[in-house]
Specification:
The structure is a homodimer of 164-residue chains. Chain A has 164 residues and is mainly alpha-helical. Chain A contains six helices and three strands. Chain A has a single domain (37-160), classed as Winged helix-like DNA-binding domain superfamily/Winged helix DNA-binding domain (Arc Repressor Mutant, subunit A). In chain A, 62% of the residues lie in helices and 8% in strands. The structure holds a DNA duplex (30 and 30 nucleotides).
DNA sequence: CGTTCAAGCTTGAAGTGTCAAGTGAACCGT
DNA sequence: ACGGTTCACTTGACACTTCAAGCTTGAACG
């Protein structure tokens, strides 16, 4: 973002060039509005938020439609606490149920119900169409791959700057 | 995200290929964790959220350190409502004050105070350093420019799919 | 002038996320 | 076998965002 115009005593910081700033502001706009747009579409058409969709989708990808909470948190980029709240809401709506893992009582398994599966199946086409129209089909295959790689690259830096 | 494995009656939807899905999941990870990481750093070092920083930064960029609420909302990617709440908090902390626009009473001007400016000046170096280490310096100048352009490209699609 | 309209902003309630503390199950050393 | 520790998760309080009204000011029209 813009640096203060005057009065900062020469710090050992390389400020952003005009070009860097412009790119960064574009990226920030995307970071703000892309998730927003996806949430809008999902909520309008299926009364689901993106996390909720991701939870259902990830569960549906397993043969037994089941995943441990911690694994689910990992793949949905959610904290365990957040996932716990999300699953609680999904449970109240009958899309998911929970059961303790019999092999290790510390784990909780989240299980996609039939209703949950139907809901996902109904939501998926619209979501994918929206994704395609906003992102996937807007970029060439190479551009998309590059974007994915850049994202992964940045993620690696984030992870190594481990705030955890 | 993963499509349901079976049972969806052939809809007119092109599902994502494995490669597309992989890129998309990378992007989603970035959309989740990059804002998080930036917020962490800002909050840890300066007790500011990213919106708050943006508000201060954008105000500081004006000669009179003043902007109309609506213009400020625009450049910070915030809704007017959200901005109103944010500015209220910043006002309570003494970083910003508000005054009605004398030329048109409908407008409210947000004004950066000296304390707010000092706070921004103190926060900026750390923020920029963090940005550089996560994003700017991780990519080559061309990569960054391309990323910015791709972002702008996607933004254009989002805006034209006007959910407003 | 007076009425209607829209724009710009504020407000309060409801929803969602985060953080810190709490619970209970398994592990580990003695 | 029992005491402490770690792990997996839950819970509740608080903070922030959003959404739907509401308020105030100026413009447009008669």
């Amino acid at each position: 973002m813009a640096q203060p115009r005057r009065g900062a005593k020469q710090p050992p910081v390389k400020w952003l060039t005009a070009s860097e700033l412009e790119s960064w502001l574009s990226i920030v706009r995307l970071l703000t509005w892309l998730p927003w747009s996806i949430d809008q579409q999902l909520h309008r058409d299926s009364k689901l938020s993106m996390v909720e969709y991701q939870v259902l989708a990830m569960l549906s990808d397993n043969p037994d439609r089941t995943m441990r909470m911690s694994a689910l948190a990992e793949v949905t980029n959610a904290s365990l606490s957040r996932l716990s709240h999300v699953v609680e809401r999904l449970e109240r709506r009958g899309f998911v149920r929970r059961a303790p893992d019999r092999t290790d009582g510390r784990f909780t398994k989240a299980i996609l119900t039939d209703v949950g599966f139907e809901t996902l199946a109904a939501a998926a086409p619209g979501h994918v169409r929206h994704l395609r129209s906003l992102v996937i089909d807007v970029l060439s295959p190479e551009q998309l791959r590059r974007l994915g790689r850049d994202a992964a690259h940045i993620m690696a830096r984030i992870e190594s700057s481990g705030t955890s």
